[in-house]
Amino acid sequence: MAQPASFADLGITQPILAALSDMGFEEPSPIQVQTIPHMLAGRDVIGQAQTGTGKTAAFAVPALQRLDSDGPRPQVLILTPTRELALQVAEEVARIGVNLGAREAAIYGGQPIERQIRALRAGVDVVVGTPGRLLDHLRRGTLELRHLRTVILDEGDEMLDMGFIDDIEAILQAAPGERQTAIFSATVPLPILRLTQRYLRNPVHLRVTPEHLIAPSIEQSYYEVRGIDRTEALCRLIDVLGMGRAIIFCRTKRGVDELTAALQARGYPAEAIHGDMAQPQRNRALARFREGGSELLVATDVAARGLDIEGVTHVINFDIAQSPEAHVHRIGRTGRVGRSGAALTLVLPREVKQLRAIADSTGARIPRGILPSPADVAAAARDSVRRQLLEVLGEADLGECLDLARELAEASSPVMVAAAALKMVLDAGRGSARGGAGGNDSGSDGITAEPGMQRLFVNMGGRQGLRPGDIVRAISGTGGISGGEVGVIDIHDDFSFVEIPRAAADRVIAVLRRTRIGGRPVNAEVARARNGG
């Protein structure tokens, strides 16, 4: 099927076309081209496509267009494997349906159920939720399915991997027999195929062809490293490649914590996300990453399932993926819908064969890269300073700085003055910007706490083996607050910062001062600003 010139060629009505235009969509992706006409015609669909191919719009557009504005609610049910994906899908549904007056609700665990009950009672057209919480509402009688027109399963293979198959079947059995059903999945293993045979009526099986499973706009490479050198190799790549926003995958939750602490100790703005974190912590970490407060998100495969974050320039496999499917899901977080991206994999010598098998299975070319040397890192830092200086020379009002420059030029040659200034900048970048140490008068690195939160200084850091989990356990154990209320944790070489609810600051400080972590006494106090204010 040839790619049409526009969304209008797919039979989409003007209110939704206008919304898509406002969202910045220019032309439909392959999965949208294949899916939208069939779903608009009422067909059941098996859509085989990875995350990042535009599949959310592929099913949301026809589901919203087929709504009966005068009919009973809800009419559309969308199942997702994770809370994060439920929120993301609900947000996209809201944006696509903004001109229709459609109402949506995200239903997931970790949020007070009373709030969800109120939303459902107020009436919604589209319900997006995780299987467990949806079943909870069904059993309580707070979710009514008898008026559903469309049921959609998003990330079907992920829900299967997470053990939701029985919950999914219970929900499908509770839905009306006369309905449209669509399942979207990067892969279609036998249990998913059996599910389609039982619950879909003469479905059309739509595939993004194998060569498109990994977007051609994603450039892949791998770097062979020794285990003890892996963190250093990662830092060099970050410094030299000019990454905008990157997701880094680790195999285990402990690995995520340890790598995040190591990056923070070196001054990199990194956030962690894994299954042991309370939902408020995960939400805050994701919000900071989306909004640019941090550049690096370190995650496990399970925690990152369903994440859809704009502007991710790089995906880094700190630990190699355990299967071709997992590799595809990981790198699909970059190179989204026509944008370019890069996927880097760090492999131990014994893992090279495994990576080659992944490349063969996915039909991808993954060439070996050359790790940057310390000299390359230094050269990249010089180039960065040079670019910044040229930007300042071209745009800034130098004002009083000119007077200071003239004064310094009387004491030495202009070239020597400039060289001294550059040395200060480069030394600062190598030191404070990458893990400088100091006491509380180092302040909070210019970062203020979120509203309602207080930033504390702690006299231990990465050199003392401190990990984020150590701080959370110490505070949540006897500090009178839960682990989910702990905010940003920044671990440097010899000190750390932690955000906690402002109302609990005095209590938490008192608790920490009575605590020993790793056999060492802890001192905590309110963090002072850099200027001492």
Describe the overall structure:
The protein has 533 residues and is of the alpha/beta class. It has four domains: 7-212, P-loop containing nucleotide triphosphate hydrolases (Rossmann fold); 215-372, 3-Layer(aba) Sandwich (Rossmann fold), CATH 3.40.50; 378-434, no CATH class; 440-526, RRM (RNA recognition motif) domain (Alpha-Beta Plaits), CATH 3.30.70. The protein has 21 helices and 19 strands. The strands form four sheets. A seven-stranded parallel β-sheet has the order 3-4-2-5-6-1-7, sandwiched between helices. The chain has a six-stranded parallel β-sheet with strand order 8-13-12-9-11-10, with helices on both faces. α11 (230-241) packs parallel to α17. The chain is globular, with a radius of gyration of 26 Å. Residues 430-447 and 529-533 have low confidence and may be disordered.
Low-confidence stretches: 430-447, 529-533
State the fourth-level CATH superfamily of the largest domain.
P-loop containing nucleotide triphosphate hydrolases
General shape: globular
Distance between the termini: 65 Å
Number of domains: 4
Average of the residue pLDDT scores: 83
CATH topology of the largest domain: Rossmann fold
**Strands of the largest sheet, in order across it?**
3-4-2-5-6-1-7
**Biggest beta sheet attributes:** 7 strands, parallel
Q: Give the helix/strand class.
A: alpha/beta
Strand fraction band? 15-25%
Q: In the CATH classification, which architecture of the largest domain applies?
A: 3-Layer(aba) Sandwich
Query: What does the radius of gyration come to?
Result: 26 Å
Total helix count? 21
The CATH class designation of the largest domain is: Alpha Beta
How many strands in all?
Answer: 19
Percent helix, as a range, is 40-55%
